[in-house]
Amino acid sequence: MQAKEILNTGPLIPVITLQDPKQGVPLAHALLKGGVKILEITLRTAGALEGIALISKEVPEAIVGAGTILNAPMLKQAKEAGARFAISPGINAKFAKEAQGIDIPLIPGVASAGELMLALEYGFDALKLFPAEAVGGVKLLKSLSAPFKGVQFCPTGGISLENMGAYLALENVACVGGSWLTPQDLMAKGQWDQITQIAQKSLQAVQAQKG
Ligand code: 3PG
């Protein structure tokens, strides 16, 4: 899959920090049951790569990606674990160049017009806007749409059930990402049904907005 196809898979990408790799499989099932087939596991915990490997092996119908990729070695590790795509919080020239040589769709994070220009220079046009709310959110994305036609975004950082509609209404927004879909307390208690319900409720809200 290309990075743009990844962004257009679903309107919502849960951003997940696994405290235990064993949470990954039931979580992926719970999300699928709720209609969310794409998920991002952040490489912020010791078991994240193992969690990705387990999901990729045991829940092949889910599209599992790796987040918080900070450099090329992490990108390679994510690919080797079975991640189908990768997301970084930011971009720099060294990483962008090295990432071109690693065969996995990468969605780099940007927060400004200058960073967007850097991403485009290396061929990346499916991007994460991060941290979306903090850097200007909907207003920034509207301002970027005229000079950067054809670029698609997944805003992440500060997105919630309440504000996601304003983002998804924008032409240059393909999907939104966030941690609200997978609250840590529900994961810790294994309350997977409630996670299914959050996914369903969020997708219904997207549909209702589309009318
Ligand atoms: C992150 O990298 O933590 C994501 O952008 C999620 O942000 P959120 O917790 O504000 O949804």
From TrEMBL:
Superkingdom assignment: Bacteria
Write out the pathway annotation from the protein's UniProt entry. Carbohydrate acid metabolism; 2-dehydro-3-deoxy-D-gluconate degradation; D-glyceraldehyde 3-phosphate and pyruvate from 2-dehydro-3-deoxy-D-gluconate: step 2/2
Catalytic reaction equation(s): 2-dehydro-3-deoxy-6-phospho-D-gluconate = D-glyceraldehyde 3-phosphate + pyruvate
Q: Which controlled-vocabulary keywords does the entry list?
A: Carbohydrate metabolism, Lyase, Schiff base
Supply the Gene3D superfamilies for this chain. Aldolase class I
Q: What class of enzyme is it?
A: lyase
GO MF annotations, alphabetized: (R,S)-4-hydroxy-2-oxoglutarate aldolase activity; 2-dehydro-3-deoxy-phosphogluconate aldolase activity
For this protein, the Enzyme Commission number is 4.1.2.14
Q: Which NCBIfam families match?
A: eda, PRK05718.1
Spell out the subunit comment.
Homotrimer.
The record's similarity note reads:
Belongs to the KHG/KDPG aldolase family.
Protein's name according to its UniProt entry: 2-dehydro-3-deoxy-phosphogluconate aldolase
| Species annotation | Helicobacter baculiformis
